[in-house]
């Protein structure tokens, strides 16, 4: 009964937002991504759940965003004009091309059922991407950053509770098998939790650029240790490596170098404190290479299988979503891999094995288009950007969305959610909207 009440309350709340405050659905999506535990909140919907997949707040929010955009397409001429412009954007066309490659792979797929399922999932995410680009406006372009930053901070009490008590509220039976306690709060996987925290740190950097009040900036600075504590409690080596790589990129792409350099100092201090308090985490980090070959050989074997599949089917792969099937049928003989270890965990290898060189070329083209967008915005604002500048510019927002996309991509090399992560599509929608702003006077919308 409680689950049905929660379902009804969720649908009612989302319905009100669709009609009254559609823009608030966008930051809500960021918060919903953090609530993977929401899949336990709702009742079993039977055949409907089999069609739609696992019910969660993320899925409900995604559908609500699509409905809100469709509603406005019917009643607002400006939105229809904006949609035509969105479809002319290179980022949009290349994302659609990737989905088309996946759909065409149905012709030769080793697992047609999974190919259809993955294609439909990507189409839904593409609809979310279009809808966000339609709903955003220049006054709310920073809302997604606020949403993820505040959600990451809100998880701190739960992270401390789990870290201190050792009581994991969800998925504990899986995580407690490891020697080191790894906090996961509302996430199914500590690595995805770590990814979300890196997104929160990037959001902090971006929001600081648009903050001129000294007190508010000090508050943002005080948030850094709170986010770092959570990241360290996850025990995620991939998360820590992702943060390091993203910070290097942030130094290159974001204008507020002082904040980033200062944060690097905070990280160094935190690392020293961690070495004294939790030396086992550092031991786990230092054993990364050994872990690949001794402690967790299945990951290395899965990489070998991915390379073998790509070598045998280099040009067009074996079909979208087919890695698991091909692996089980033809490549599991490589090693005695435990049951359930049937995902490559590495985005590049997954794409290479499923869509071959064609898929890798489209993926590369997407990144080229995104970097081209950044380069264009940088040239427009070059006179205002210096090493220690903190000028409010469209470029800074675009750089933030780019760093979000890169965070998802880098992290997905250790945990395989890339195109499946709504934050990637949200980031791409933000980048496309920034191009729309350049043409706002032509079409008469904000």
UniProtKB/TrEMBL annotation:
Any matching Pfam family: Wzy_C
InterPro entries named among the record's database cross-references: O-antigen_ligase-rel_domated, WaaL-like
Membrane-topology annotation of the record: Multi-pass membrane protein
Keyword Nucleus in annotation: no
Cellular location(s): Membrane
Spans traversing the lipid bilayer: 55-75, 87-108, 120-136, 148-172, 192-211, 239-255, 260-277, 355-375
Record carries keyword Transmembrane: yes
Gene Ontology CC, one term: membrane
An example molecular function term from Gene Ontology annotations: ligase activity
UniProt keyword list: Ligase, Membrane, Transmembrane, Transmembrane helix
Residue stretches making up the O-antigen ligase-related domain: 226-363
Source species, domain of life: Bacteria
The protein, known as: Lipid A core-O-antigen ligase-like enyme
């Amino acid at each position: 009964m409680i689950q049905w009440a929660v379902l009804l309350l969720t649908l009612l709340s989302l319905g009100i937002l669709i009609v009254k405050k559609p823009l608030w659905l966008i930051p809500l999506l960021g918060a919903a991504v953090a609530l993977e535990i929401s899949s336990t909140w709702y009742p079993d919907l039977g055949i409907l759940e089999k069609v739609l997949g696992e019910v969660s707040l993320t899925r409900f929010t995604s559908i609500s965003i699509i409905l809100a955009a469709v509603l406005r397409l019917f009643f607002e001429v400006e939105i229809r004009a904006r949609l035509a412009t969105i479809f002319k954007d290179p980022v949009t066309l290349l994302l659609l091309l990737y989905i088309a490659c996946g759909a065409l792979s149905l012709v030769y797929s080793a697992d047609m059922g999974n190919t259809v399922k993955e294609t439909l999932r990507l189409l839904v995410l593409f609809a979310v991407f279009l809808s966000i680009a339609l709903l955003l406006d220049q006054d709310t372009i920073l809302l997604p950053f606020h949403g993820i930053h505040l959600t990451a901070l809100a998880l701190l009490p739960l992270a401390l509770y789990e870290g201190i008590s050792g009581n994991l509220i969800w998925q504990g039976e899986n995580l407690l098998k490891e020697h080191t306690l790894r906090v996961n709060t509302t996430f199914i996987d500590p690595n995805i939790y770590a990814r979300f925290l890196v997104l929160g740190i990037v959001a902090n950097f971006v929001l600081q650029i648009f903050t001129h009040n000294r007190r508010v900036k000090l508050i943002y600075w005080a948030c850094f240790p709170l986010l770092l504590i959570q990241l360290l409690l996850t025990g995620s080596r991939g998360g820590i490596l992702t943060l390091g790589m993203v910070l290097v990129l942030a130094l290159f792409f974001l204008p507020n170098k002082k904040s980033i350099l200062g944060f690097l100092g905070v990280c160094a201090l935190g690392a020293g404190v961690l070495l004294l308090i939790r030396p086992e985490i550092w031991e786990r980090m230092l054993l990364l290479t050994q872990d690949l070959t001794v402690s967790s050989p299945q990951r290395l074997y899965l990489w070998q299988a991915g390379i073998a599949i790509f070598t045998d089917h280099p040009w067009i792969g074996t079909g979208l979503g087919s890695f698991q099937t091909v692996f089980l049928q033809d490549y599991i003989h490589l090693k005695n891999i435990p049951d359930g270890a049937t995902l490559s965990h590495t985005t590049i290898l997954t794409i290479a094995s499923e869509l071959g060189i064609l898929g890798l070329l489209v993926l590369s083209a997407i990144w080229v288009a995104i970097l081209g967008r950044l380069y264009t915005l940088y040239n427009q604002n070059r006179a205002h950007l210096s090493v220690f500048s903190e000028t409010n510019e469209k470029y800074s927002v675009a750089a933030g969305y780019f760093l979000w996309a890169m965070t998802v991509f880098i992290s997905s090399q250790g945990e395989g959610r890339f195109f499946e992560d709504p934050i990637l599509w949200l980031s791409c929608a933000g980048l496309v909207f920034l191009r729309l702003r350049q043409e706002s006077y032509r079409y008469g919308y904000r």
